[in-house]
Amino acid sequence: MTNIQRINPNTMAPPGGHYSHAVVANGFVFISGQLPITPAGDKLNNASFEDQATQVLANVQTALEAAGSSVAQLVQVRVYVTDIEQWPAFNRIYQQWAGAAPPARAVVPVPLLHYGFLIEVEAVGVIELLQK
């Protein structure tokens, strides 16, 4: 029987719908699509793309850490952007955030996101790195 744990850290705004910020199952942590919403619940839909991207990645990191994982333990990241022209700006921010061991990644242009946001990020990580 699989043990599934749903995680909604109090250091993040509560989920805006019927989902959990993170779900842990079989050694993996699945991070729901994170939007640029501050821990206080402020929607950054009028902020610059860079500020939105920075907040989204901070939300992903907070959810990972609440699940017992970290950015270094990511295995895949999916990024949704409303303007593919923002890809270079995102890549610079992401490179600093992801560090020396970047996970697999996809950047997907989409026509729009909820609340008029410019970016959304979802991710999959592991709880413990496998020993060789």
Description:
- The protein has helices at residues 49-66, 87-98; strands at residues 4-7, 22-25, 28-34, 74-81, 104-109, 119-126.
- The longest helix has 18 residues, at 49-66.
- It is an alpha+beta fold and 132 residues long.
- It is built from two helices and six strands, in the order βββαβαββ.
- The mean pLDDT is 94.
- A six-stranded mixed sheet has the order 1-2-3-6-4-5, with helices on one face.
Question: What features would you highlight for this structure?
Answer:
single chain, 60s Ribosomal Protein L30, Chain: A, six-stranded mixed β-sheet, 2 helices, 23% helix
Shape: globular
Helical proportion, percent range? 10-25%
CATH superfamily: RutC-like
* Estimated radius of gyration: 14 Å
Number of helices: 2
CATH topology label: 60s Ribosomal Protein L30, Chain: A
Measured by DSSP, the beta-strand proportion falls in 25-35%
Q: Describe the largest sheet.
A: 6 strands, mixed
Protein structure class = alpha+beta
List the helices and strands and how they pair.
Layout: E1 4-7, E2 22-25, E3 28-34, H1 49-66, E4 74-81, H2 87-98, E5 104-109, E6 119-126
Parallel strand pairs: 4-5
Antiparallel strand pairs: 1-2, 2-3, 3-6, 4-6
